[in-house]
Write a structure and sequence with these properties.
The protein is mainly alpha-helical and 215 residues long. It has helices spanning 21-43, 53-59, 64-79, 91-101, 104-115, 164-167, 176-184, 190-197, and strands at residues 123-128, 134-139, 151-157.
């Protein structure tokens, strides 16, 4: 069966004023939707029907694996945001972030600093290594932590299509990505991040090429 564009976990306008309904619609329906369409076109020329995104990521090569990565990353990203998000982490996740980064604010500073490496054309992630260590990493658009045995907790799309429409015209366009990143602090879905922090490591799933997708 062909892949379908997963439903957003909230209404498009519900992330305003941090992401406009038009920005979310363009990113979701056009960009994410085109990724799914391209993936299905590639699948139609292979014998890989009924394979999950995770299996395609682990077992196939480009361009099929690249499109599977983009599809997986975007679905994960939408769940990292919530109209009821913001504030900060609590419980064990908060204690871990403070232990690793010094404070939750210092964690956000680390995100901003590392984001400078890929603003406009990449992703930033909070991941758990198979050693249990938390790290902030950046990856290009066609890569994902699960391909490296890292467990993703939080992802932020830093490609221009994710923010430029909303943030390029309010101040220095070169700093649009940083303004977007700062705004997302108000809608990070910390419940989802905390759930991922408790999940089994990706390394434990690699034998079966399974990493549960967000529902």
């Amino acid at each position: 069966m062909p892949f379908e564009l997963p439903a957003l976990p909230y209404d498009k306008q519900s992330l305003e004023p941090y992401l406009s309904a038009g920005m979310v619609d363009d990113h979701y329906r056009h960009h994410h939707g085109e990724i799914i369409a391209d993936l299905n076109r590639l699948m139609s020329t292979t014998s890989q029907a009924d394979r999950s995104l995770e299996i395609l990521i682990f077992q196939e090569s480009a361009p099929l694996s690249d499109q599977a990565v983009k599809a997986w990353n975007h679905t994960f990203y939408w769940h990292c945001l919530s109209p009821f998000g913001g504030g900060g982490p609590s419980g064990e996740l908060s204690r871990e972030l403070v232990s690793v980064f010094g404070s939750v604010d210092a964690f956000h500073d680390a995100l901003s600093y590392r984001a400078l490496n890929c603003l406009g054309d990449g992703w930033i992630w909070l991941v758990r290594e198979d050693t249990g260590e938390l790290r902030v990493i950046t990856l290009p658009d066609t890569d994902t932590p699960i391909a490296h045995g890292q467990t993703p907790l939080l992802s932020i799309d830093l490609c221009k299509h994710a923010y430029y429409q909303d943030y390029a015209h309010n101040g220095d366009p070169a700093k649009a990505g940083l303004r977007y990143l700062a705004a997302l602090r108000n809608i990070i879905n910390w419940d989802f991040v905390a759930m991922n922090a408790k999940a089994p490591s990706v390394a434990s799933h690699q034998g079966s090429a399974r990493r549960p997708m967000p529902r």
